[in-house]
Design a protein that fits this description.
This protein has about 260 residues and is α+β, with helices and mostly antiparallel strands. The protein folds into two domains: about 110 residues, 2-Layer Sandwich (Uridine Diphospho-n-acetylenolpyruvylglucosamine Reductase, domain 3), CATH 3.30.465.10; about 80 residues, CO dehydrogenase flavoprotein, C-terminal domain (Enolase-like, domain 1, 2-Layer Sandwich), CATH 3.30.390.50. Helix content is about 30%, strand content about 25%. The protein is built from nine helices and 14 strands. It has a five-stranded antiparallel beta sheet with strand order 4-5-10-6-7. A four-stranded antiparallel beta sheet has the order 11-12-13-14, with helices on both faces. Strand 12 and strand 13 form a beta hairpin. The longest helix has 21 residues.
Length: about 260
Amino acid sequence: MAPFELAEPTSVSEALNLLDSDGARPLSGGTALMLMMKAGVLRPTRLVSLRRLGLERIEANGGLHVGAMTTLRALETSSLIKHHLPVLSRALRTLSNVRVRNVATVGGALAHADPHMDLPPLLAALGAKVKVVGAGGERSLAVEDLYSGYLETTLRPGELITHVEIPTMGRRRAAYLKCTTRSADDWPAVGVAVVLGDEQRIFVSAATDRPTRVADEASIESLTIEGDLHGSAEYKKQLLRVYLKRALHEARSAVY
């Protein structure tokens, strides 16, 4: 791994100044970043750690306000999340393994833009938004608008996700199901998130290059499916047909 400078700012403004340099990259949990650096895919000259910015709180304020540096394990075990968003707590139990969840962060998981992640489709279905800050100021993005392709986001150079705002369930019903080809905490071959209420929101992932909204079961037929080591495109399309039916049934049967 190539040598790099490690900076540990104590404010968001200081972090943004440090990121305003060629070769600078933000460091949250580092679970994906370090693997990419070891493989030589990324060669940053400066890593800007976000761990001292005070972005790890979970608060209820109308909806749920989740700091970007909240670990996935803290999100999974939060009493606020269990009470207001039980579907999210359940989904996190099989997101990788507990060693990764102890380190990986919400902001990092979203910014990495791997279509196999469990959080993006579920948060998109729940109507969550990310708050982003950069040299041009602050802005808000729906989670579904954060992605532009495989490992690609609509974040501008130097921008950081500071927190995520998630509406509470209210009278809505939700389910998230995924199919893994090996262990339960493996990368999914497909993921399906369903939220039912005044509006039906369905997002699929892992079979597509980003979390993708579909209207109903019939619209799966028109999707461009990505085959990979977890299954061929045709196999994944059949999995989506089956798992969407199951997710809809689970959401309709949910009791909160």
